[in-house]
Records
---
Amino acid sequence: MAVMSGRLSSIVSQMDRLYEFDREPVSPDKLQSGGKFAGLFAGEHVAATEFVIGAFFVLHGVTAKDLFVGLLIGNLLAVLSWTFICAPIGIRTRLTLYWYLRRIAGPGLTIIYNLANAVLYCILAGAMIAVSATAVGLAFRIKTPALNAVFPSSVGWVLLTIVIGALFTTLAILGFEKLSRFAEVCSPWIFIVFIAGALAVLPRLGVTSNFRNFWEIATTRIWNGIPVAGQDKFSLWQVMFFAWFCNLAMHIGLSDLAIFRYAKRWTYGLYTAFGMYPGHMLAWVCSGIMVAAVGREMNPGLMAYESAGLAGVAGLLLAGWTTANPTLYRAGLALQTITPNWPRWKVTLAAGAITTVLSCFPIFFVKLLDYVAIYGLVLMPVGAIVFAEHWVFPRLKLEQYSAEKRGWAFNWSALGVWMGTLAVCFLMPIHLFFRWLPGYFIALISYIVLSLSRKR
Amino acid sequence: MDKKWLPALSLISLAVCLAAPIMRFLGKISSESYKLVFLAASIGWFVFATFWSRRK
């Protein structure tokens, strides 16, 4: 027991050193302008996965009306979640989720949260690598995995993902910061690739140059409401919920406290609209058009090549790489908590190796929508716990930050609520996309009830 | 190259990237020409914007 306790405190002190630079609340002179927030969000939400998500809505038989209405409302709900849930806590605490959660749940639970995050980041980066692999695979005639594939279907696919994964990892090791600056150059151009690709293939689908028959083509040849074989049909509700929870870990899950601690006002949450509507609406619409133009074949590489030529293929590769790069970095940072004294390169190499192995398995790419839902769902209860502690506890005169005040390594109530909520969500007899919402209220209420019973 | 031209050249490259698919959509250029112009303008964007971002 004493050995375990010593090991835990060693991990905790190592972890604290890693995040030391943002331990103190952001000072007023470090606050950023609204323009910076708009630019940050605009660049953050156009990734390689946008090529897949928009295309999947077509394959799942979404109708044009459901798509546009669902994306308008769903993205609005996401923007409001950032504005009313994440940003107000960010400007009041001026802390990252890491430090705020440490006060609430204790350093032990923060380690578990970090590890969960690391695994989820690796899977996400693996999906980015797989999407990029479809672009390179085109040149070598390597077949893109089928929509029901779980394991790698060919040696070629495995070799391809390993080579791309190794390349992305090497670049991340060589210089994360320089590459981040290059990613800023890529960002507006990648967005243009989506617009260009969709515009250029519209005539192939039969849209005339005066745009008059666009809606007719959209409803009959693009989002015609007929799912492809093996895919279940999505309605307005699935589209709306997907757009809402796509960044669940960031808004409701509160990991964007790291960004909003620099905001002058909580209304800065509204700037997320600059990321949502171009990235999670326009880019998804564009990729839907592109997949319809290639005969509804889920092959991002083919979609990019057919719609924008070699530049399209480069766009897909760069979109995958620029988003896998920071994801690998974050995964490495989270993994560093269990690898004390490892240098930065070694941790990034470990994260890259895990990611590369995962990218060989096409399930994370062909089931991307489900994975995005699970990713948000797993981290959502932590957001509910922090929300309850921040807003509800003072009103009910419950003690805040018990873990910090009493020196607990684990806030067992928080851990129990987190795991219990996930177990209940797992058993819910509703579509995966909808489970997080009742799950959020279950986590919120059960954490409050447990804390009230402890008080008595 | 005089650095004051870099922002203008970068933005012109990006504008050409956008103009090429519009011309294709309007049927003014062939698919091959569109892809070639788009590729050339994309290279232009990366060259000029990279130097521009370094000098900022």
---
Amino acid sequence: MTALRDEPDYRLCEDRPVRHTAAVQPHGCLLAFDPSLRLVAASANAASWLDRPPTLGVDLHEAIPGTLADRIAEAHARPELRPLNTTFRVALTPGVCPVHVHRNADGVLIAELLEPDHASAIELLTELHHATERLVQIDHTALALPDVARTMAQAVQAATGYDRVMVYRFLPDNSGEVVADERQDGMEAYLGLRYPEADIPKQARALYLASPMRSIHDASYQPAELRAAEGFSAASLDLGFATIRSVAPGHCDYLANMGVRASMSLSLVVGGRLWGLIACHHRTPKSMPIETWPLLRLMAEVASGRLAAMHEHGRFLDTVKGTQLTQLLTSRLNMTTSLCTALMQGSPNLLNLIDADGVVISYLGAVHRQGAAPATSEDHIRSALADRAQQTGKSVGDCLIQTQSGLGDGWDPELPGVLAIGFTDQADDYIAWYRRELTQTVRWAADPRKAVEVENGVPRLTPRGSYAAWEQSITGTSEAWQPREIESAGSIQKSLTDVVIRIHSLQEEVDRRTRDLQAFAYATSHDLRKPTQNISMRLSMLAEQLDQSSPEIKSSVEAALKGSLQLHDMIDGIDQVMQSTTGEFHSVPIDLNEVLTTVEELFAETIADQQVTIHRGALPIIEGDRGMILRVVGNLIDNAIKYRADEPPVIRVSAAYEQGVGGRIVVSDNGRGIDPDRVYEALHPFKRLTSDPAISGAGLGLAICQRIARRHGGRVFIDSVPGQGTTFTVTLTNS
Amino acid sequence: MSRRPRRLHILVIDDDPEFHEAISHAHKDLLSLSVITFQNDATLALEMLHSDTPEQMYQKPVDLVMLDLNMPGMDGHETLAEIRKHPKTKTLPVIVLSNSDLRDDVRGAYAGGATSYVIKPRTIEQLRQTVLQIDSFWSHSAVLPPESDPNRAE
């Protein structure tokens, strides 16, 4: 709920007396005794019950007639009636009168003497018992709130006979909404209406939480004021639990304006909070016999219990759903190398976890969006997360922000709802869910801005003359984030934080091992050179010395020499792989025409021998490391010639490049081609896809190309048809 | 400036006896007239180069050095620096013959004043080609190009 414009300050009403009204409704009279049973206050109408005015300031037995005094003293003395709250009937002047005796929070014993009633309490109790049973039977797992509330209202109306029974629910802003409205024909419907906070102000809500039931017998009553003994202030007497307590000024006018003469309300308390009320209205004076009050209170408790069960069940289902989704997402997180893929693609994804219109993951400088997600929002979220972390002293990875109304100036007004979590110690890394603006219409029972008026400098509730519903359109907010959704966001935050920490330490481990391996490969290739050179030198000397007299030995030595020369090539290859992986990288403009010419010169002899044709497409100037690009083109041409088919090789070289975007170098041939299943093996170091002894090489050419492409932000793609040829595409994305 | 082939005195500084043998073999195959002195310790090689009264008086001064880089103790780069520092040898041709093709080695050697950098040949045939080229080039050079030392004895 958004704030209303011209919102009245409800706090102005908070000093309105509710418990200390110093008066009672005149259908009963009230006697108050201090702990020593001295009569300290009595309502002005007490004489009508006692035959004579009670004597204030004296002991109970002196103050009032003997039978009543004895019964009160007896209740006072009975230890099993603690806390004291009991009813009995005594013959008094008007007849046999119900008497309610209780002790208030200050230890004052209060006796309320009521008018004799004629309704059969036994019949009523039976009805109320049935109604309570109906409440017990409500299936909270199958019904939603409107049905549960309607069943409650129906049961209470049937048992009590009030003209109208409503279930009224407090919303988070303390305004109220009618969620069930059972009424006699001809009465105006209140279902769905909203009432402003001031209608049931804070101190009244506090009393309703403590005392589960109150009743107004006849709203047009003239209050019977309390008279106090000397030294006692009637206004200090806490009447919070007195059944005939006179209500706050203005409230009766409020009821009268609705055409209500009698009312009763039962508190609905869920989880220690005032959830709402069962509010009963009657068009003529009415109250429930005092004997039924305990059962009415029990009914209210049962109803509260059903509501609690319904909410618990809803929360349980939500939690189960949330937990299941979180677990599924977490297991996907653990199986993937890409956080964004795990969380955004497939099912379940972040939008299944929390029903929103869009979601954004910002991680390691990359932003992935899905659905409606404003690009303008990123700075807002970053600074909100950073601020929260600073205010709370927590890591950004423990911070969660949520709002229904955007994050300030410049926020996209179409998506005012945002729920965002950090998951590293950087505010740059976050997940944010967005919700669209939700225009909702609230039907107020009356214009809520006129609920409070200031009269002679004193604020008071306006007893509203008009109850014409007043419609308000609420904009600028989204649907609220539910507690379950916030919980789910929190769970995914924990999982992500764990995963990120793990990825981080894994990355460090990988980096460390890579460095070790590189150092090892470097040392190995370097140390192998000398013995390899010794071997090939010796073998070549030996091969020359052997004459044709021992051809077998000679061919063995030549084979050994060939092997040792291959070993040289492999060591060179390792060095080149290392160079292309970790060597220096100088990005400069490179004319691919010039590169291809250099390569043609290098291969001039082979090109002539093997009748190779090289078709040159349009070759632009690209940017990259010159040595590396030369090596890539050289390796691809070398490859195309080596893996030739029977007909003379025809090689086409083309390229495209756009500054700041990237490009590609494409080399295609009419060679023997690569089996599609083995295409990616071709990119592995030392992977030769042929055992043809005529084809020399260490099997490192394409592995080197792949590494060089990676250094240029791209990769090598192989498109091959066995028997027809192969197209190698090297992409470059370096800007 | 003489065009007559000279008899070169080549000093090979290399700790690998295998390489010494290969070089001798190649020279023998080529019927080369060059005199070769092998030294497997760079420090001793420098002493010999810089001594005013060489112990081996019968030998003429060194005309050319073939230097390995990867040696225990004083390595090739340090040896090269010492050669270039000393007035007597600062213009002496030094041809690096190494197994290493590392950028740092190649650049370092040229920056340190190497006359040439050759990757050690893999076969005797390749070695013969290398030795022949070096021999024939330097034995026809009367005065060292490009910064010849006019004080140097022919």
---
Amino acid sequence: MSRRIRVPVLVVGGGINGAGIARDLALRGVHCALVERREFGSGTSWASSGMIHGGLRYLQRDPEVTRHSCVDSGAIQRIAPHLIFRIPFVMPVFPEDPIGPELVEVGLEMYDQYQPFKNGRSHTRLSRAEALRLEPTLSPRIDCAFTLDEWGVDAARLTAANALDAAERGAVVLTHTELVEWLREPGGGRVVGGRMRDRISGEVLEIEADVCMNAGGPWVPKIAALAGVELRLRPGKGIHLVFERRVSNLAVYARGVDGRDMFAFPHEQNSMAGTTDDDFYGDLDRLEATEDEVAYVLQAMERSIPSIRQHRVTHTIQGVRPTLWGFGKNEDELSRDYVVVDHARDGAPGLFTIVGGKLAAYRLMAEDAADRLCAALGVREPGRSATTPLPGGDGTLDVLATAKRFRTPVAAVVRLGFRHGTRTREVLADHDTDLRTDGATAPRVVCACEPVLDAELRHAAAREGVRRLTDCALRVRLGVGACQGAGCVGNAAAVLADALDWSAARCVEEVRAFVDERWRAVAPALGGSHLAAMEIHRHSFLAGRGFTS
Amino acid sequence: MVGGGLAGSSAALELASRGVEVTLVCAAPGATALSWGTLDVAAASPLRRGGLPLRDPASGHPLAPIGRVHAVAAANPAHPYATLLRTRGPEDEVKEAVAALDAWLEPSGLRVHGSLAQTRWLADVHGALRAADFAFSGAGEGDLESAEEIALVDVPGLPGFEVRSALRTLAAEMTAVGVASRALSIVRLVLPDALRDDAAQPARLAGRLDTDAARSALRDAVAALGTEGRLLLFPPVLGLEPAAGTRAWIEATAGCRVAELVGAPSLSLAGFRLDRALGAALSRAGVECIAARVERVEIEGIHARGVRLAWRTAPGPPSHQAWRTAPGPPSHEEGTATLACDALVLATGRFVGGGIVERGGQLVEPLLGLPLHDLSGRRVDGLAARQLVRRDYEGEQPLFGTGVRTDMRLRPLGPDGLPRLANCFAAGDLLGCFDPARDRTGLGVALLSGRRAGIEAASC
């Protein structure tokens, strides 16, 4: 006998689209169920560049996309100031570039008009000497350079914050739960919900809903196919390289051999470089970067930052963009805009799909999609997601006072504050309460790269619904630094085992899954000084901790 | 001697014991300093995939460590053990090498416990069981089967040790493996205020525990942990200086047996203590130690005649290894020098030590450009590292079995399959065709090959 619940809306897919829709609905008082097959944002959202940029590259072809992005970027800054950080860009112009500085400046002047929407500064033109002083890693071959202003975000955290806020406002939010089949009205008519299977416990849950939203990102065709609906995407795979530490002060534009724009940019504790864009029709569940893609990114970056190969690439991240179908265009020219499809005309009334989109405009798209769902439900409540802060986004955190009060290293509180904003004190207070009965001690650093505290892991398990160790790489950036978990994963598993009552065998299984996932991200770009780190990694996990057979 | 880990130190100490004048050049601590308290000649992690069986597949009888040594050599004829143990067999060779190591380390307060005849069950910081053969003072006193009652010592504030999870794992594994069940419990050592802030940094806490001031502050708390028949298992932070005898002090104060859990790289000072004890042994033996990088080997015909050294700061005792007190060449801020030699031993390690590097996308042995061979014996120098990895993390990874090949006398082979130089020897992780992470031969290869390389070099 399976469990059964009833909600007005079922959203399948816990990426930024699904989580954004669930939150938007929750803010209108519409209860929904949000179901994610793995961890929030673990598909495409997490693998994005982690920027809520305005989309300079879309300006020429699709200024509407640029405007959407800039306006919504401003809104995201207001509701989640803690998750956002400014990324100044520098765009070098080389003597051989087909587009000279004057023309580049015309484009940037156009873009400047959109900057106020997202609290961005106008561009500046730098002489060669000025540019090299600001960014010494730049190639001395440049003619001149321009600066422009963008914003970065922890995309996985932004996704989780939306989902968790939805849950706090009454949504049923389930991770590691997959759609087995759609529930249909007799005769294969209206879609009236879905049958779900918990991928950890194996439990089956039936969710009945008035309307259903397929927000599966690159998986939307598969999910639609379960309702007999054919949907076409032009999936584009993109990879980023992640460096051990920051490679440059500023984000640096580069150009691929094929003329595509790329950049290397400081992001949180590291630098990233990317991205690629290639048609992808392979297995979405076993996505790996290829050596070619790694070489392509490095080669592109080398022209702008000649020393790029001296830096240690710790791993790659890879995802597939759910780009709208459009035939015959180059991958890059395909629109990053989105559509909401009502499948009534495809013989599946009650089912909608959201396709496409862009992290920077996620909120706007989610609001639009929620409008469509509300119209179908006859709900008139307007969206409030542009003005209601996300959890922790309702003020500023006094880092020093918090560090002192909870006897926690300042560096750890800074990063904790980045993820939790004003709720940082709650994370630490929970820990304090837990331990008062238990030989009170200050929170301990589990992962030194980020850093991640045991208190945050405990909080993630107890209050944020983290269910697997692998979730923590996204949720709190556990084990994604230089050592790729060699120094922390065993202990992190132990903390979660305590919090989630895992058996010894389960604990080892969780470590193994985590390490396998890291290795798949490390192997394609492995080389140079990272070899020593990975030799230690292997000793830690094989000779050291080992795995259950 | 190039390289100051266990392999290089063993070679140097063996040479010195034969009256040979030895200079050891070492750029930085290597993998030995990251080791975690056991000397694995052929260890096993029960309940784990890969590695060596605990039982004889045919008879079902438990395999003593000696059986696992034979199994390693039999499973992989290219394994360094196949060469090292061919003439004398492991019983004598290992016994002699371990006895020599014990004698070298003993004046520093570090002993080597164990034997090849019997598996000793140790627990690590995660509570996982280790089937060990030999272990150093610290972990070495932690034989689970000889205890009536076992208590894990929680040190609040110390990162990297989750005591409840460790206890749960240990209980489950002891049952699964059939180690006779003991009473298991957790006891807590609450640090006095003076030490509490040190706990966040294990190395700092360990250093404090070596001092009289910390001990007098801790005395009552430590005394309260002891009960007759109890084995107290501490996280591996009992001291930085082996000669300070912190573990023995705790044992005397608590009035019961005390040992450390086998460590993990993030939390173990056992490797650090081993490194220090080796440095002290080198110093006692009169081995000159120089902190410098070897730029190149000076060659004349088929003989190494010297090494060209380069240093950035003043040469002399490595600054991070202040116990290595032998004077270096005349002090300069930056400079080079040539050391002449009659024989050369390379114990430069694998990737951690820098014995093998990837330059311009190609794997190379940087000193002599020696041919490299992967786990299966394939020639791999000139290939990129990522061409030698496989997606199955736990499976065979050709990259991590990469190293040089040698003749029976441990002389690395050149491209023609003959010894590259008549008087150059290789030891330790630089040797190819074995993957210590997977076959759990750990420091055993370093000790056996280091000693053998020393004996061979002495004959030059």
---
Amino acid sequence: MARRILFSVPVVLGVVVVTFLLLRLIPGNPAETLLGLHASPAAIASLRHQLGLDQPVWRQFWHYFDGVAHGNLGRSIYYQVPTSSLIASRIGLTGALVLVATFFSIVITVPLASLAAMRQDRLSDHAVRMFSLMGLGMPSFWFGIILILLFSVDLHWFPVGGYGSTLWQHLDSLVLPGLCAAIGIVPVLIRSLRVGMLEVLGADYVATARAKGLRPSRVTFAHVARNALIPTVTLLGINIAYLIGGTVVIERVFSLNGLGELMLNAIGYRDFPVVQGVTLVYALGVIVVILLTDLVTARLDPRIRLK
Amino acid sequence: MLEVEGLTVEMRRHRTEFRAVSDVSFALERGGALAIVGESGCGKSLTLRAIMGLLPNGGRLESGRVIVDGVVLDTGRKGRGHGHRQRRRMSIVFQDPLSALNPIATVGEQIAEAPRHVLGLGRSASRARALELLRHVGIPDPGLRYGAYPHELSGGTRQRVMIAIALSSDPAILLCDEPTTALDVTIQTQILALLADLRAENGLSLVFVTHDLGVVSQVAEHLAVMYAGRIVETGPTAAVLSAPRHPYTSGLLAAAMDVDTPEREPVTIPGSLPDPLRLPSGCAFHPRCPLATSECVTTDVRLEPVGSGRQAACLHSDLLAAAQSAAPHG
Amino acid sequence: MSTATAGALDSAAVEQGVSRRPSFWSRALHSATFMAGFILTFTIVALVLLAPVIGRYSPVSQDLLHPLASPGGAHWLGTDELGRDIWSRLLYGGRTDLQVGVLAVLFPFGFGVVIGTVCGYVGGVLDLVVMRIVDVVLAFPFYVLIIALVFVVGVGTHGIYIAFALTDWVIYARTTRSGTIVARNLDWVAAAEGGGLSRARVLWRHILPNTVTQAIVYAMSDIVLVILAVVTLGYLGLGIQPPAPDWGAMISDGQTFIQTNQWLAAIPGLAVVLTGTGLSLLGDGLADVLRPG
């Protein structure tokens, strides 16, 4: 366990370095590019100073790194408040959205993949595979627009956008967005899990279990399901980064004021510290989630546990 | 005790179907042992699986019956039917214990599973039974081994665990699918000895599938040779090995590396194993058979009696018998 | 395997038959998936390439007298809010999106395969460092990184190419590296090396063909991913800049009129789905055909 955390440290460092380097990738004079053509030299100089561009590179990095370690992610140029406070106020929504999306991903993928695996080569298998193949090419935001059209506008089942104020309203307004974000990874998950399940179903130990004369339900639950859980969790871990990234666009489609919306607005305002800060937070979130899935997998699979 | 009649299995691979097992029949008496020999791909493993009703995905029982103690087993659609209740009289031991054991459950739990959920013993009773079985199959320190996971054990121990699991449902018939192939020679001997002991003590009937001719005389009194999905010769083991009545069997015996006469050149059977999707007409062995005539190509050759308790599927088996009595097999 | 045991029948003693494998094209033609994907993709590509011929209007010319026309009649798929012909915009948009999608994958493919092979073959410090970099890139959610990069280096096709060049190579590198490591541990490769072939030659003739085919199969799904990203960026206004047509921007424009003129937003999305389906079928088919045995 401690080893896994240790291995994440270089990645975390790397992530910090990359986000630091983002500023330097801006072509030309960053402050000038950010402010646009009509900016006054004074404004440019002021921004240069605010961004720390007038200092040597290593001091800039140290300043940045030190800040990150203390939770200081700079100051928003547009809002003139600490970036971290902006992030803190929105991370709850995005986190909730990711949770809802993960929930939907599991709830949709597992039954469909199991169905396809157990009825291999029959109609239901082909149907599931066809749908998931078509889903690979479907933009989740477009799916969102269609969903809004169907459910909110025509049927008035779910809100068209916004987050609401009570817990119930929160959940209600996260259903469609969560579904949309889930659709981003469900096709890939179904395809992979189906293969994983086929492996489990065809495994000799399942034959051994059947040979014992156990009831089919016991074979399914004690042997097939518990073993199939492992690749499911692993797959989820691998794809969660993509899921999280997908929420950025979903937030815009459904007018949700989360981190993604914050980032997109910041891009519009050319608010570099916010873009940088949000990117960093997203990456750190992914690293945490991957560590968690590693933990869960180790708990589930004794072959990994004692390595 | 166990009668198999006309077992025929169709396999589907990549949208083509082929017959992997054709019309396999044999009978096994109580306490008896039968070895089924053949090369990889001859259908011997599938035969066992078909008998157990455990055909893999893509396999289908085309026809045939399995009768245990006079009761015809319901093989259901696709040979997967055996009501789980019917399986209790027979058990199977697979070739690779690492893949045949559930990787995420302890060995003890897996042995105790059948007593607990099939025989209806309580938790402590089934645990006790499991420990007893571990002892019975010769695993030292059963208490410690109970909580071990399959990947933590050695190959030989794992196979003993497999045998323990097979015994846990109190079967009368044990089907073994190449149980010693994946093991070292020394472990092999131990496992074979264990099986012999179990037969003697519990009166178990045994069907033993292998590709290793050297093992059969240690294991079983009766022998069946399979080629391209069919049984081509059966009979008492000693008789078949010393005086084969099918050209394929003599070919196998000649090809077997004889450790005692290393100076002899290895003899091979000319040609190659037939593609199951495109079996030769008539006798499947005719392209490679030194005794083949035009009749062999056109006739659907079946097993015919060729002497006391022996059968061979060859039109010219009497030629073989004659050749053997003229020049002693050496 | 107990070859020393008296009586063992291993394949050395009895010759195994070798079945001849049908050629690539014969297998391809028999694979329903491959053919379906090939036909669908080919049709779409042909349509967009023929845009100047079959698109009946210029994609940017506005006709403010006939905005939001329904499909049918002079404008096959209707017009958008500025009177631009949807069918033509669809075709030209497809042209741009497909072109960018394919081109954006080239550098990641080339660079990723090369660096992955080198890392897998040589190992050592280079391998360690590059794999850490891969981990770092993979820690960022894909869209977050792409959006951030596009923001930083500039929007439009130019930014897209750079963003993908920096991020998309990692999967190629990783899978090629694993494939190379597996391959070089195979007996026959060791034999080739031992037989005096230079390292480069072993790499080129023995290892690369296998890993590259794997990479090509992955590239098909990658192109779908990239097209999706291009379309998404277009939707967000960060991608291909107007007035050049782009499916994403068309969806974004159409969203305003979702209640009254649903097809404005629906049609470009369907185009993306169809393209993705064709490419995915082709990729799956290719994987089927190239799979051994």
